[in-house]
Design a protein that fits this description.
single chain; 368 residues; 2 domains; five-stranded parallel sheet; 5 strands
Length: 368
Amino acid sequence: MNSNSSQPFDKLNSISNNSFLQNEELESYDSSSYIFEEKKTHGGSNIELSKNIFNLEKQIENLVEQVKILRDEKHLITTKNNSIRANQLAEETLEKIVQEGLIELKKQKQTLTTSIEKLEHRRNKIHEEMSTNFAGVSEDLAIKVQGFKKYLVGSLQDLAETAEQLDLSISTKENSKKISKNTERPPQNDSLEIYFATKEFRKQHLQIEKAIKNYQKEPNYYGAPWHLRRTFETIHAEKVKEWFFLRSGKGAVNSTGNRLHDMLVASAIISILGELYGNNNRILILASAPERLGGWRRGLQDCLGISRGDFGPDKGITLFESSEILVQRAKRLIDNKFLPFIIIDEAEEQVSPFLLQFPLYIAFLNCS
């Protein structure tokens, strides 16, 4: 009975023990599942964290690259700004220089304009003087000058008389009367006798008249050298005729009042003498100032179509500042069978008496 009655209790105990074991197994399974789940959860978060770290590192690298790029851009921008500032400074400097240059050019322009106005005024004045001279000297001026002219001509004739008496030692009364009357003079050389005002040389008189008319009516602006190439007006013709026919190629004539016109008169005489005597002429010009000699050289070059090579000691024209040297040169020319023609500038206030012994000379008298 006892063994039978204990069997149910044993079964109950075994059942309870089995259930306990099952509970423990269940609990053990639940705990292991929890641990696995927990490990699984922690493993996933680590992977995600690694991914985040990797992404952050990538972002840091990108940011570093961007910083580097920004620094390069900043450097480029700084360099560009410096270049722009330098260009602006250069432009400002250039603009300042240009403005200063413009101011200077304006000043020069104003100076040139003033000079041009003065030159134009001077040109108009010269044109007026030329037109007045070409038209002829006014009667009022002629009246005022006439007395002075007679005085000067008489003085020169007296000087010529004195010089010829001293140099040529003329003692006879007959020759003294001839010199004082100024109708005839003793020749310096038999082959170079010149009496333009006498009837014996009527042929030369006509030749001179013809040349003067040709200069007036048919000026040859492109003629041969040593021939007149300029317009020849009545006033110039009167001066040339006066010198040839009234002064007999030896005397003083009133200046036209313009040096260029005086040069034109002298050029016409040189041209006519060239037609009469060929290459035997030698022109000697006396002026005490170098600039006046330069003016004569340029004026004769222009009027006669000659060059600078025609001027010189052994050339056709010689320039002198001293009358003593000119006298010596003229004597040597006569000794060598040449015919000296002496031109005395109007600015010469005193004339050496020894100049008056030569066969041909013209002195322009300043009537101002």
